[in-house]
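Repro:
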Amino acid sequence: MLLLRKISAERACLWLTDEDGAATMFELDEFSWLNANDVIAFLQPAIDFYNGRRVSTQKNYMSKLRLFGKEMRRLGVNALPEGEEAWQTFIFDAFTIWMTRACKATISSNAGVWDSIIRPFLQLLRDVADLIPLGVIVPDASQAVTDDISSEDSLIGNVNPEEVSRTDQLVVTIDLERSDAEYLDELRDELVHRSSILEQCCLAWWEQVEQHYRYGADLIAGTNWQGLLERLMSGKYLDPQFGRRGGARFHFANGRSKESLGNLLSILAKLHGRNTNKALIEKTASLPCYSCIRIPNSAPETVSPLVTLRQRLNWMLGNLCATDYSCAMVLLTMNHPKFTTSSLLKAKLKDKNGHPYVEVDDFGTSFRIDKHRANTIKSETLSVHCESILNLIIEMTSHRRDELSRIQSPFANSLFLIGNRSQIMPLDPTHATSFLSGWPWMNSRAERRWLGSYFPQLEKAGISQGTLTLRRVRATQGVLAWFSSGSAESMARTLGNTAAVSVENYLPRALLNAWNTRQLRRFQNIWLSVAAANESYQVTATDFSDLSALNSFLLRAIEILPNGSSPLANELHERLQRSISGQSSTQLPEGALSIPASKNCLLALYLYKEAAALAGISPSALRTIDISTGICPNDIITLSDLVRSRAIEDRNPKVRQAHENAVKELPEIMARTNWQHLFARWGNNYEQLPE
């Protein structure tokens, strides 16, 4: 076991305990260029990742990281970088120093160590630990080194690092060219659509998990264990009612009926520790041949034919794996973005004083989680779906947790537990995220499966393999909060960070540039229109193609900027309002839309938007105008966003209170209503329209 300890403000040490309990201390002088706090922040994710593995693996891994730290002294830094650009410079310089270090190792050997140990370590700090900003690129040495390299000098000249940007940190790639208002609306709609599809897929995954677990629990409870035990002791494993030929396929616990599947599950649960290992089943005489085990038609359906027999047996026995936890973490991140990936992986059930982190209060079920890097505890009232899944995880892992408690293992307090043969340990950080995108280390010898392998609708929605991570899911939720309000503070509240950190690390620079460009162009067009009032070249000086479009834009500006609010607003009203009002092609609005500031009205608007998002219909369908009303669903969704952003910070306390009450009741109303099915029907009708 690896343990990182702080000795003083400037020093940290590493303790390694082997299987016999012998402990060895390493001074970590190689990282003396960092203070103790930075050393712990830099190495702790790697310690957590490799704890539970063989001691020889831990020694090899840490020796390479210590060697990496020794080489980094040549950078001449005395603290970890801050900000994306500083981190990118640090990593590119580190890559150069590592590949050109003076040693007996060949460049190919250096590249192998970089790709197998150092690069995954840096990616762990970026994708899981949140230490390195998401937009930072970690070079791939295998792409920079070829088999015919004849000298070390040719390597550096051949490395062409990619331009660093944050355009790929969402589930939608940002277009660097467009910055118009329509593009921003399209981007927001696409983010909502893809988030909805992803949420539906993860909910479907956990629905099948729960159905299999309940089904298996009922079969085990309905089995006559005493009679089954007597039959096992008698050695009569074949059921004569199937015929005279015998064979493993006629085993009384082969799973071909509910009764035989109950027998199989009971034997595995009570005699073999719920282990579904193929080798164990094959060598156990009282169990059928693994290839002959079947699942009866009465069992719950699966989301895809790719779901394996072992997965279904594990769910029936209450065993969960990294695949299941990946979907759970996506849902927790989407509904509660304050929870970071690293804090979720380290989630506990109780604090050091034995107080539970999961509690029921007046508002629902609250869940507290430690954010170690920020040295804070974040608490959230769980959504209905997250509450159900969290309770299911606790229920399904109770038998594993009891086993760990009996041996006084510290892992018994971990929320996410997996069984690795005879070992039970917390969830592995890499395995927890690899299923989402199917990274190469997940399965290098066969076709890699990822979440989209089971749900083809993800590919159809534009989420392809390699583009989905928990950090992108979290960043997407922050950007959606920013879209809803246009406020960095609102985004910061959603993510649980400061406004500066949210803008720096989670808001793609290209998106921010597009928004700023839009705002600047609006201001410029108003300014130019005022300056060129009543001139023949007024339309030519602006971005508009005809006078009607310009007048419509200016009318909206007059409504938004009241007279007296600024010198420009004063000139706008004085010079242009009369001339625009006199244009026959453009009419001033006859009235204004009045929205009652009541809880029920706000609740209906918020419910409309949430139901549309949950239905997962395409953005183009939301922009389809209804003939009878002359409006499209997107109009009401936009109105919901506007009302919500205004109500949050309204000066009237009654309006703010109505907003808070509406938000509080929204999850319960969502569970009781069926509005998303209305949107699904709207989307189906849109798909059937002739092109």
